[in-house]
Amino acid sequence: MLRPTEDILILGIESSCDDTAAAVIRGDHILSNVIANQEVHRNFGGVVPELASRAHQQNIIPVVEVALSKANVGKNELNAIAYTRGPGLLGSLLVGTSFAKALSLSLGIPLLDVDHLQAHILAHFIRDTPDQEIPQFPFLCLTVSGGHTQIVVVESPGHMRSIGQTIDDAAGEAFDKAAKIMGLPYPGGPLIDKLAREGNAFAYSFPEPRIPGLDYSFSGLKTSFLYFLRDRLKSDPDFIGKNKADLCASVQHSIVSILLRKLALAAEHTGILEIAIAGGVSANSGLREALLQMAGVKGWKVFLPRFAYSTDNAAMIAMAGVFRYMSGNFAPLDLPPYARAGEHH
Ligand code: KG4
Ligand code: ZN
Description:
345 residues; binds zinc ion; 19% strand; five-stranded mixed sheet; 2 domains; globular; Nucleotidyltransferase, domain 5; single chain
């Protein structure tokens, strides 16, 4: 694969869920990476689509302006605009899509449509230091976010195929739902991670799902966690308060074990030993530690994304845009967004 050259300068825009983000990339080097998180959803225990679209509309112009000025780049220097086409919330995607289209039209430069899930994976090709190692093709990527859980064989920047996915909840959803059951605020994943550090991962155990092949399921864990707590709360109303760290550590351990068991199977089936993780849940310290430990045993070479490129960001959109630019894959102005993965095929 040819390494992106310094003469490629691209603005990336991400608006698929509740973060409005913009980033500028030169070659494979990020010049700026700006995110406006939407606080409006905090009181609702989840993302409210209508509020998300409105906040994107308010944020997108200032976020893009800050990204350009931090990068010290003028709009007229850009070669192309990359934006998230999907999957995500349609109303949110439409704000980024319309903005990207208008900007590319007004500047007379190409538009690059990016798949959000592929971008999470391609974040591994960002080089913040010149000697940073990048994965070699083909490699496996466990993509774990709030909406998706997949094991992907990555053959090239444009060729990826999923060989396993969740049949119900995503891994991030499992974290967020477990947190909600314990009365923790949304999104609960990062909080469980934090509290788990003080707890005993073996304090409580929950049954592992029996799903054939490389697919995942997390809804059973959520249900058994709910019933377990319901029982314990009957005899001790403060059970959660007293045991929060152990509960977090145990539920995190369960989710991580489920994730890694199938990932190990995928590595066995494909014979691929280069393994990456991507998406919001790849920020989880329990997953990172357990993966590194397993890699030592199995002889894997592991790639962990920087924290700034794990959860939603526009740097990954810009990086994915660079690859599309290099392949001359430009988007027409009438290209519609898509809400669900794979809808565009
Ligand atoms: O990739 P992402 O930012 O957005 C989607 O594309 O969905 O992922 C968000 C998900 C949420 O479910 C959030 O709770 C989870 O990633 N997450 C974490 C951590 N940081 C974010 N889950 C566990 N541990 C973390 N440190
Ligand atoms: Zn994401």
